[in-house]
């Protein structure tokens, strides 16, 4: 972009290649530059620890390369400490909202040009609501790592340019990176529109429209839950209905009031067909009518996603409780011994099941910290306080009240369950291939693009059918499919060739096992699937974007 580089450098920014992992010279020079900034000039450096944009408004796994460079002077003893300040930025409405939705569906990111920058300035005339900036508590690297001065003295005799971090130090930095992400998410402000989207989406599952009074009641209850969990909620209860009207006006491209009921702002399929060149889509060329359903649905989901830092683990606990309750009922029906007979045993059983779900979605929701037990107890108390879960102290029997709060929390997790389940089904549909008698059995090889194309085709087909469950338009979002695919790989269900990038099923750990587990979780959800409501809208009269 002509002129932009010079302007940014004058503000104190410096250029960094998107990737330089194979260029050792560039790596060494850049590392020395960072080393000098921290150790000699003591200049604060601002960078984004996730290393890229999050198009789905969720935290990503931290990339600790730049953080490692910033901490190298500390590990070499050049500086006594390095302070990290987590910064959270929250937007009521994001400038790139519509662009992100299109990119999630496969439309390539527009090329950045100076002309395009000035042309895009006209978007500032639109309303974008409030922006919140939160500076978290500073984190001392020395205190976080638990170091004393003697821990790093042994490095002092080695030249800085020869210093490299060892495995133990890299593991410490990864933990610090996770802590930064954790604190950043805690600092995110939950807006009235976030709560509105969360509540409205839960009502779509039961095919129920809502008016402003019902929205106000739902948002008020959600505000209490989030504040109990420790979130910052920017909702003024004294002017709640006014805030609802105002935020709906700001996001009128997603939702609007019609005849006093909240509804999606319909997207014209014919207009999408003219605006979007389907040949440019990264995966499958989606039908315009499917895009018309997916665009507002994904836009709504974007504003639900920031809430998942707080709701993912309570949702896991509800699923675990529903599962255990079913097992207890089966034990009573079969007149066999119940799985657990004391309160403590039931709680331990629930913890194990929550940990299992945590493992499945560990790359989806970045909530890893050393507070797992503390959060489990907090969530258990929350569900009990709001009448969702009761465990008998006499015989450990679980009682679940499927009230409105429980359904909202479960509905927040439902799209992700659908994504992982449908992706597991799609990957398992790739055929197996048997090699010659002189070699071991080998699974067919396939690329990640093969999976994405097949998955989008599959979901498009399912969304056009009438009696299919466990489907959500979010299953079309490429970023989430890539995250889920990476999760399968990290869990050992599929293998990736490092040189070619080709994937194949891992022998000895069938993905069908996970598919069956995910289906069981999906079947525990106490409501219809979202796509049915979307299908109704797909057949409705189109209106302008």
Descriptive tags:
single chain, 545 residues, mainly alpha, 4 domains, 3-stranded antiparallel beta sheet, 50% helix, Dihydroxyacetone phosphate acyltransferase, glycerol-3-phosphate O-acyltransferase activity, Plipid/glycerol_acylTrfase, membrane
Structure report:
With 545 residues, the chain is mainly alpha-helical. It has four domains: 150 residues, no CATH class; 114 residues, no CATH class; 98 residues, no CATH class; 128 residues, Arc Repressor Mutant, subunit A, CATH 1.10.10. The chain has a three-stranded antiparallel β-sheet with strand order 13-15-14. It has a two-stranded antiparallel sheet with strand order 1-4. A two-stranded antiparallel sheet has the order 2-3. A hairpin with an 8-residue loop joins β11 and β12. The chain is globular and about 70 Å long. The C terminus is likely disordered.
Can I get a quick summary?
The chain has 545 residues and is mainly α.
Principal-axes geometry comes out as globular
In terms of per-residue confidence, which ranges show pLDDT below 50 for 5 or more consecutive residues?
A: 432-443, 540-545
**Mean pLDDT across all residues, rounded?**
86
Helix content: 40-55%
Strand tally: 15
Number of distinct helices: 20
Task: State the end-to-end distance.
Answer: 30 Å
Taking all Cα atoms into account, the compactness measure Rg is: 25 Å
How much of the sequence is in beta strands?
5-15%
Structural class: mainly alpha
Q: Supply the number of structural domains.
A: 4
**Largest sheet data:** 3 strands, antiparallel
Sheet with the most strands: spatial strand order = 13-15-14
């Amino acid at each position: 972009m002509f002129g932009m580089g010079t302007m940014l450098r004058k503000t104190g920014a410096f250029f960094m290649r998107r990737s330089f992992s194979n260029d050792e010279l560039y790596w060494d020079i850049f590392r020395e530059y960072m080393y000098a900034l921290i150790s000699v000039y003591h200049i604060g450096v601002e960078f984004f620890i996730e290393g890229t944009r999050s198009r789905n408004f969720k935290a990503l796994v931290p990339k600790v390369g730049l953080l490692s460079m910033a901490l190298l002077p500390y590990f070499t003893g050049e500086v006594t400490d390095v302070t990290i300040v987590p910064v959270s930025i929250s937007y009521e409405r994001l400038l790139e909202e519509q662009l992100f939705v299109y990119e999630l569906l496969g439309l390539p990111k527009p090329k950045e040009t100076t002309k395009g920058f000035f042309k895009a300035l006209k978007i500032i005339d639109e309303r974008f609501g409030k922006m919140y900036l939160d500076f978290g508590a500073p984190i001392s690297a020395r205190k976080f790592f638990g170091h004393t001065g003697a821990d790093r003295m042994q490095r002092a005799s080695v030249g800085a340019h020869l210093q490299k971090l060892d495995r133990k130090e890299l593991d410490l930095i990864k933990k610090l990176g996770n802590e930064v992400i954790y604190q950043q998410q805690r600092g995110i402000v939950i807006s009235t529109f976030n709560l509105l989207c969360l509540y409205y989406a839960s009502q779509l599952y039961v095919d129920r429209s809502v008016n402003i009074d019902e929205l106000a009641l739902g948002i008020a209850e959600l505000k209490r839950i989030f504040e109990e969990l420790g979130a910052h909620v920017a909702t003024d209860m004294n002017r709640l209905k006014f805030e609802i009207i105002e935020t709906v006006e700001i996001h009128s491209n997603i939702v609007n009031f019609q005849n006093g009921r909240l509804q999606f702002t319909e997207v014209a399929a014919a207009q999408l067909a003219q605006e979007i060149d389907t040949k440019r889509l990264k995966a499958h060329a989606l039908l315009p009518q499917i895009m018309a359903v997916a665009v507002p649905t994904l836009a709504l989901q974007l504003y639900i996603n920031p809430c998942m830092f707080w709701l993912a683990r309570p949702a896991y606990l509800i699923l675990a409780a529903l599962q255990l309750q079913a097992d207890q009922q089966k034990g009573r029906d079969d007149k066999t011994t119940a799985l657990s007979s004391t309160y403590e045993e039931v709680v331990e059983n629930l913890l194990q099941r929550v940990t299992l779900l945590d493992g499945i979605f560990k790359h989806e929701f970045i909530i890893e910290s050393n507070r797992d037990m503390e959060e489990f107890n907090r969530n258990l108390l929350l569900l009990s306080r709001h009448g969702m879960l009761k465990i008998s102290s006499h015989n450990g029997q679980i009682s679940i009240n499927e009230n409105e709060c429980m359904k909202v929390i479960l509905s927040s997790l439902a799209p992700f369950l659908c994504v992982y389940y449908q992706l597991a089904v799609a990957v398992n549909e790739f055929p197996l291939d048997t090699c010659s008698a002189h070699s071991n059995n080998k699974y067919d090889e396939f690329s990640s693009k093969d999976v994405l194309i097949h998955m989008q085709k599959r979901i498009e087909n399912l969304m056009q059918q009438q009696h299919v469950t466990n489907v959500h338009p979010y299953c079309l979002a490429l970023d989430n499919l890539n995250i889920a695919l990476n999760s399968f790989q990290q869990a050992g269900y599929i293998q990736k060739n490092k040189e070619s990038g080709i994937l194949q099923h891992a022998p000895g750990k069938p993905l069908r096992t996970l598919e069956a587990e995910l289906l069981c979780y999906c079947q525990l959800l106490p409501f219809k699937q979202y796509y049915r409501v979307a299908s109704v809208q797909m057949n409705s009269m189109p209106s302008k974007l």
